[in-house]
Automatic annotation (TrEMBL):
It comes from Anoxybacteroides rupiense. This is Cysteine synthase family protein. It comes from the Bacteria. Its cofactor is pyridoxal 5'-phosphate. The keyword Transferase applies.
Length: 307
């Protein structure tokens, strides 16, 4: 039995499970990549490690320095986890609306959490991070929304894992977009392997990808107020805009039918995957990303439709 030398070695290589208890057309198979089984509980554990490593290797961060980052929570947890034992301070700028559990986990991992007004959205958190960056010496902001290391993380890790675990038998890839890095990097890798793979991006209502205006939504962890520079819309083979009601309904169904305890962004992605499955021909293999778990949203009554 292999024994890891640190928690950092446990990031990645998450399992895939086939969804078998939902009605699908004959010959269509649907698989879910359980990213919430990373040690920090989300797909962003991968990004945290890459951002910190990139910061040290580029010389932008030195021991004893401070990482400052605007985050909805999961990237913060991933960065704080990556910083364990590295002699760096960590400060996160978090809009007040995001789950208290995420903020508690960031603090438990040694981070300082600075709140910004919900009404200012992620742009408000980004603005606050820039202010702190100017005030605190030897500080660095990875800027996940603008850093090419974000999609590169998933090009290097998540894409190859999916390809290997499913032996290249992938016809449709489905993922939600918050920063868009998970979708973008994975889609790029898969398209290089097989240009015929359909890459499907998922957003909640209140996001901009389908031409809508930024607005409030209960689905947490996905939804874009602006399009990061690294996003390439040519990879958007389909865009699904999912209601909060459908996302939370799917969360409840996945728990009751499959025993999968996932967050609302997973519920939204799963609903999109089901929409794709229901119109797919026999022999189609679909894989969807489940980024995080329901446990960090219990205070928001995730199993009661959210608050």
């Amino acid at each position: 039995m292999k024994v890891a030398k640190s928690v950092h070695e446990l990031v990645g290589n998450t399992p895939i499970v086939e969804i078998t208890r939902f009605p699908l057309p004959k010959g269509v198979r649907l698989f879910a990549k359980l990213e919430y089984l990373n040690p920090g509980g989300s797909v962003k554990d991968r990004l945290g490690q890459e951002l910190l490593q990139d910061a040290f290797e580029s010389g932008k961060l030195k021991e004893g320095g401070t990482i400052i980052e605007p985050t909805a929570g999961n990237t913060g947890i991933g960065l704080a986890l990556a910083a364990i034992g590295k002699n760096v301070n960590v400060i996160f700028c978090v809009p007040e609306k995001f789950s208290v559990e995420k903020q508690q986990l960031m603090r438990a991992l040694g981070a300082t959490v600075v709140h910004t007004p919900t009404s200012d959205g992620m742009q408000g958190a980004i603005k606050k991070a820039k202010e702190l960056l100017a005030e605190i010496p030897n500080s660095y902001c990875p800027q996940q929304f603008a850093n090419p290391a974000n999609p590169r993380t998933y090009y290097k890790t998540l894409g190859p894992e999916l390809w290997e675990q499913l032996d290249g038998n992938i016809d449709i890839f489905v993922a939600g977009a918050g920063t868009g890095g998970t979708f973008m990097g994975t889609a790029q890798f898969l398209k290089e392997k097989n240009a015929g793979i359909k890459t499907v991006i998922v957003e909640p209502e209140g996001s901009i990808l389908n031409g809508g205006e930024p607005g409030p939504h209960k689905t947490e962890g996905i939804g874009m107020e602006f399009l990061p520079e690294y996003m390439d819309e040519s990879y958007f083979d389909a865009i699904h805009t999912i209601t909060d009601e459908d996302a939370f309904r799917r969360v409840q169904e996945l728990a009751a039918k499959e025993g999968l305890l996932v967050g609302s962004s997973s519920g939204a992605a799963f609903h999109a995957a089901m929409l794709e499955a229901l119109q797919a021909p026999s022999g189609t293999h679909i894989v969807v990303i489940f980024p995080d778990s329901s446990e960090r949203y219990l205070s928001k009554k995730i199993y009661e439709g959210g608050i």
